[in-house]
Amino acid sequence: MQAIIKIECKDPEIIMKSLLPDIKEKKDLKINLKTDKGNLVIEIESKKISYLKAVINSYLSLVRALKELEE
Questions:
Q1: Measured distance CA(42)–CA(40) in Å, rounded
Q2: Alpha-carbon distance 13 to 19, whole Å?
Q3: CATH of 2-70, one of 3.30.1330.50, 3.30.750.24, 3.40.50.800, 3.30.310.50
C-alpha cells in the first residue's frame, strides 16, 4: 500500500530538512520526502495498513506544527 501526500508550504525545503532526521526505514515501511514547486511531497509505502495510517497521522501532525512555526 502506498500514500502520496502533497502539502503546500512557503518553504518546503526547510520543513523537509526538519523531518529528515526522523525517517527510519524498516522492512515493512519506506518513507521518501521531496519538494516539488512549493510543495512538500511525502511518499509512504507500507505492507501493513496500520503502519501506513500511523505514519500519515504522525507526519501530518509534524508538518502542521512546522507550518505554524513557519508563519
A1: 7
A2: 10
A3: 3.30.310.50
Measured in whole angstroms, the distance separating CA 42 from the mean position of its chain's CA atoms is: 4
Task: Show pLDDT as tens, one digit a residue, over the chain (71 residues).
Answer: 999 999 999 999 999 999 998 887 778 889 999 999 999 999 999 999 998 999 999 999 999 999 888 77
- Cβ atoms of 22 and 52 within 8 Å: the answer is no
Scan for cell 501493513, then name that residue: 48
Could you tell me the maximum CA-CA distance found in the chain, to the nearest angstrom?
36
| Residue 55 CB neighbour total at 10 angstroms | 17
